[in-house]
Design brief:
Blueprint: H1 6-11, H2 18-40, H3 55-71, H4 75-78, H5 80-108, H6 120-132, H7 153-168, H8 175-196, H9 208-228, H10 237-250, H11 257-278, H12 286-302, H13 304-317, H14 321-367
């Protein structure tokens, strides 16, 4: 019998870009801090990290680069179904974990009350949609989040969409067509920024399509960087690039956001990805980058359960500045700790289990 040629493509692994992994962790931490601070400063012009939400656009750009690097030369061999399996195994365990944690926090929040309008059936439907990553913006008290139990899942929904489009369309396109699509998507980013005054949308029902515009450009830009080999050799290292990335999150929130945010997303983040891919890494920084990269996705997908508790505590207790600062710092540390435990005790074992089963099945088929 003919042997299954998908096995070598499935079993091969590629070297990681350690500095890019480290920057992913910096961006995830920025998101967590931003989510705490947006409860305190509803006027973003007073928030020192008011642009922390742009970390999502950096994630999208990084994803386009990494997906191109990891799969451009082997998707044809491994096949689209195998690609989808690999992405589900990588991404979905934490979608489930975030949904479960969000449900528990919703039901047992000591500072919140479950509104009477939420019947058991409605809560079950909201939870089911969160588990399968189906947008369901019906929770008015939570700003009509696409995923009321775990708000950050909105970007994972678009990440799934981008992966599907990549496997079915983008993988087959020549670089010149990717470039054309990237330019068209850039027009979409500017349009959204001008219409809304910023690029904050995408997480809610009313701003649903803003998320599509945000991932369309950034994912394509990351893919184009890889396809064009726009890797800039440099000696900035992880600390230097971490500072440069952080500057995007702490830039002032002004009436010129439509322009500054557009420039950051269109030019600055792709530049940082190109620099991160080409930066030299000191050996002493490698463990930090590895840990930062490993913890980034678990931190992003598990922290928001605590945010609703924090928000309900803050609005009901009206704490003073000193107490508030201690709680926020402790909340960030606890969020990282919980993410680490979820990663070690759940995410890694679950992914390893399904990956090993899948590989064993492929090798068994190859041997026939």
């Amino acid at each position: 019998m003919e042997k299954n040629t998908a096995a070598p493509a499935l079993l091969q692994t590629k070297q990681h870009f350690d500095i890019l992994d480290g920057l992913r962790g910096v961006a995830a931490l920025a998101v967590v801090i931003f989510h705490f601070m947006e409860w305190v400063f509803t006027d973003f012009s007073q928030n020192f990290i008011a642009h922390g939400f742009l970390a999502v656009d950096f994630f999208f750009c990084l994803s386009g680069f990494v997906i191109g690097y990891a799969y451009d030369d082997r998707l044809g061999t491994m096949g689209v179904p195998a690609f989808f399996k690999s992405r589900i195994i990588r991404l979905h365990p934490l979608v489930v974990a975030g949904s479960v944690m969000g449900l528990l926090a919703f039901l047992f929040d000591p500072f919140g009350i479950v509104p009477e309008s939420y019947s058991v059936g409605k809560i079950a439907l909201i939870f089911f949609c969160s588990m399968v990553l189906a947008p369901f913006p019906v929770m008015e008290d939570r700003g009509f989040n696409l995923f009321g139990l775990n708000a950050p899942s909105w970007s994972l929904f678009w990440e799934y969409v981008a992966n599907i489009v990549y496997a079915l369309v983008l993988h087959r396109l020549r670089k010149v067509y990717i470039a054309v699509l990237t330019v068209l998507a850039a027009v979409g980013i500017v349009y959204v920024a001008c219409r809304s005054g910023n690029l904050l949308g995408g997480w809610s029902g009313p701003t649903f399509w803003d998320g599509g515009a945000r991932i369309a450009y950034s994912f394509l830009a990351g893919l184009l960087i890889y396809r064009s080999n726009w890797i800039i050799k440099n000696r900035l290292g992880f600390p230097g690039l971490a500072v440069l990335l952080s500057l995007a999150f702490i830039m002032p929130f002004t009436s010129w956001n439509w322009l500054t945010e557009s420039l950051v997303v269109l030019l600055y983040f792709p530049l940082l990805v190109a620099l991160g891919a080409g930066a030299a890494l000191r050996p002493s920084m490698r463990p930090i980058c590895v840990f930062s990269g490993n913890i980034s996705y678990p931190l992003y997908m598990t922290h928001y359960a605590f945010l609703w508790m924090f928000g309900n505590w803050y609005t009901s207790q009206k704490p003073g500045g000193g107490e508030l600062a201690v709680v926020i710092i402790a909340g960030v540390i606890v969020s990282v700790g919980v993410a680490y435990l979820v990663m070690k005790l759940y995410d890694i074992p679950v992914r390893r289990y399904f990956t090993n089963k899948w590989k064993a099945k492929v090798l068994e088929q190859q041997a026939k």
